[in-house]
Amino acid sequence: MHPRRPARPAAAALALTASLAVLAGLTAAAPASALGGHRSGRLPAVTPVSETATLFDDEQGGNANADDPAIWRNDADPGRSLVVATAKEGGLRVYDLGARQVQALPAPGGPGPEDSPGRFNNVDLVHRMRLSTGRADLAVVTDRGNDRLRFYRIDRDRPGGPLTDVTAPTVPAVFSASQEEINDQRTAYGLATWTDRATGRSYALVSRRHETRIALLELTAAPGGTVGYRLVRTLDLPSSFRLPNGSSWTPCGEPGERPQVEGMVVDPADGTLYAGQEDVGIWRVRADLTSAPVLVDRVRAYGVPAVYDAETEECTAGADPGYGGRRLAADVEGLTIVDEGHGDGYLMASSQGDDTFAFYDREREDGHAYEGGVRITARSRDLDGSEECDGAAALNQPLGRAFPHGLLVVQDGHDGPEDGPRTATGFKFVDLGEVLDALDD
């Protein structure tokens, strides 16, 4: 392992204070049943309307692996809205509402032939950011391979495709101090964007792969209509936890790897960040990273002791002490807000371990009560559901004739019937209205 850059004193102090506060709170944590009412029985199933063409993570397929989507609404013509999605080494894909590809953008290479290539992990949007050339909507991407953010201006009717790379050429590495450290790939991973309504400034919250750190970056206008960023502060979530019986628990993983965060979303109504620590649960913290994190819900395996086996590269679990939640099967993945207006709606999480999606009350005053869950299942032999979902995005606004009641896009980690010897992934487009109806039944 290569040495990491020392944390800024203020950031380190904040991380330590936050971690101590969280650990103290977890010692007296309420039982999982206090996190909301339990709905027994099988979860309702909803089927997708359409799906994107399969991506294949091999040389023939351009090492394309579907991961995370974002939905851009064309306010002038909602039926011509777009879905922007990451494909890791395959770069970016842009789809219309019929799930047809309208543009593909490659990930940039590494600086040298022996360096890690670009790898696009997560994507989110910023609306009407002020650039040197005027306001613009942006797609923001974590380039895990190069440890940087990349920015793409969205112009729906631009000849050659709606997205244009407007990343400032001088953007720095987010976490790494050297190219050698970048090649170690403890780099920019999960992503959520946020615009502070009080100041109008836009930010990106970025998690670090194999670490518990989250960085707050302010997005800045650079010359020629390009976009850069600067570090504001960081926060470290805990990597070990004191259990109600007084013992200490650390999630099992490869030696030297801490329980990382990937899925994140900011609720624009109150500037709250929700962060999915994959083997732990869902955290709530101020988007400016100035409050102590609160654990909203825990995975079922929370507190279960396990031992890593280097030969099988798997963890062997011991007896369950019963401190886990009941809604989430690790990994906790894609988080998204379903906005029903006036602060109402849901926080949705991908429960990757059991192929379900959990919905929590969006309102903090109601303790983020569990409101139910759904599965995305096969519509036909040729249109399967979603399994081992990574990223998800919801937009509860009418999108023309295709999705008059809103759209939910979810990643499918096993795209059938193509899934076989080749790693096959893709994205499913789901009528959000049907999902909300299923929750109400």
Mind explaining what this structure looks like?
With 441 residues, the protein is mainly β. The chain is 7% helix and 39% strand. The chain has three helices and 30 strands. The protein has helices spanning 9-27, 179-183, 432-440; strands at 45-46, 50-51, 55-56, 69-72, 82-86, 92-95, 101-105, 120-131, 134-143, 148-154, 163-165, 188-195, 202-208, 213-222, 226-236, 241-242, 248-249, 261-267, 272-277, 281-286, 294-298, 306-309, 314-317, 332-339, 345-351, 356-361, 370-376, 392-395, 407-412, 424-431. It has a five-stranded mixed beta sheet. Strands 2, 3, 28, 29 and 30 form a five-stranded antiparallel beta sheet that branches. Strands 4-5-6-7 form a four-stranded antiparallel beta sheet, with no helix packed on it. Strand 10 (148-154) and strand 11 form a beta hairpin. Residues 1-40 have low confidence and may be disordered.
Brief digest:
By secondary structure, the protein is mainly beta. Helix content is 7%, strand content 39%.
The major β-sheet equals: 5 strands, mixed
Gyration radius, rounded: 21 Å
Count of DSSP H/I helices: 3
Beta fraction: 35-45%
Describe the strand arrangement of the main beta sheet, using strand numbers.
1-27-26-25-24
Low-pLDDT runs of 5+ residues are 1-40
Mean pLDDT: 91
Summarize the amount of helix as a percent range: under 10%
- The best one-word shape is globular
How many beta strands in the DSSP annotation?
A: 30
**Secondary-structure-derived class:** mainly beta
Distance between the termini: 51 Å
